[in-house]
From TrEMBL:
The lineage of its organism: Archaea, Methanobacteriati, Methanobacteriota, Stenosarchaea group, Halobacteria. Residues 50-147 form the Methyltransferase type domain. Keywords: Methyltransferase, Transferase. GO terms for biological process: methylation. One of its GO terms (molecular function) is methyltransferase activity. It holds the Pfam family Methyltransf_11. This is Methyltransferase domain-containing protein. The keyword Transferase applies. CDD domains: AdoMet_MTases.
Length: 206
C-alpha cells in the first residue's frame, strides 16, 4: 500500500472521517439503495460477508441483519479514521466487526466469505485489478460480489466532474461497471438510476 495514490486516498478519507454529520446524511440518502444491494447479496442466516472499503460503516447494520447473530460481517478499510467510525457502528450491530487493511491485500484466508459488498468504494480504489483478484480469492466459488457505485457522464461535463471527484473523494475508476463486466463476464444490473450513472450490480464469483 506504499504508492502515492493509496497514501493520498488514506489522507482524503481520514479527513472525511472527521465529518460524521455529513456521512450520516449520506447514509440516510442512500439507505434504500444499500438495502437493495443487501438483498442482492443473496446471503442468509449464518453466512459470512465482507464489506470492502466500508468507510464509516453505513452498510454494516444492513449486512448484520442479513446474516443474523450466527453470521459474520467483516468491514475492511485502509483509513484509520474510517475504521474508528466504523468500529463504533459495528459495536452497535453485532456480528459486524471492522479491520484496518488494504483491499488489495486482504487479511483473510482463501474462500473465507460467501459474498463481498462494495458501496461507493471500487471507484475510489487506485489498483482495482488487484482488489478484484483479492475478491476472487476470498469469496468462495459460487459466491457473489455486489457493487453500488457510479460513473461521471461522458463528454466535457464528465471530465470536469471526474477531476472534481478525484480531488474530493479520490475517484480513480471512471467506469466500474465496465471493469466488472470485463472481469466477471456476466454482471447483472439489479438497479440503475440517475440516467444509468449510478447502479447496483451483482457478479457471480466462479
Ligand atoms: C466513498 S467511501 C465509501 C464508504 C462506504 N462504503 C459507504 O458506502 O459509505 C470509499 C471508502 O473506500 C476506502 N478505500 C479506498 N481504497 C481502499 C483500499 N485500497 N483498501 C481499503 N479501503 C479503501 C476509503 O478509505 C473510504 O472509506
Amino acid at each position: 500500500m506504499a504508492d502515492d495514490a493509496a497514501r493520498r486516498g488514506q489522507r482524503v478519507y481520514d479527513r472525511w472521517a472527521e465529518y460524521g454529520v455529513l456521512y450520516r446524511a449520506v447514509d440516510r440518502l442512500t439507505r434504500s439503495v444499500r438495502k437493495t444491494a443487501g438483498v442482492a447479496l443473496g446471503v442468509g442466516a449464518g453466512d459470512a460477508v465482507l464489506d470492502l472499503g466500508c468507510g464509516p460503516g453505513g452498510s454494516l447494520p444492513i449486512l448484520a441483519d442479513a446474516v443474523g447473530a450466527d453470521g459474520t460481517v467483516i468491514g475492511v478499510d485502509y483509513s484509520a479514521g474510517m475504521v474508528r467510525a466504523a468500529t463504533e457502528r459495528a459495536r452497535a450491530n453485532p456480528p459486524a466487526a471492522v479491520i484496518r487493511g488494504d483491499a488489495g491485500g486482504l487479511p483473510l484466508r482463501d474462500d473465507a466469505v460467501d459474498a463481498a459488498f462494495a458501496s461507493l468504494a471500487l471507484s475510489a480504489m487506485p489498483a482495482i485489478g488487484g482488489v478484484l483478484d483479492e475478491v476472487e480469492r476470498v469469496v468462495r466459488p459460487g459466491g457473489r460480489l455486489v457493487v453500488v457505485d457510479g460513473r461521471a457522464p461522458d463528454g466535457a461535463a464528465g471530465s470536469a466532474l471526474r477531476a472534481v471527484y478525484r480531488r474530493l473523494v479520490n475517484f480513480r475508476n471512471p467506469d466500474v461497471l465496465a471493469v466488472l463486466r470485463h472481469r466477471f463476464g456476466s454482471v447483472t444490473v439489479v438497479e440503475s438510476f440517475d440516467a444509468g450513472l449510478e447502479f447496483v450490480a451483482r457478479a457471480d464469483v466462479a
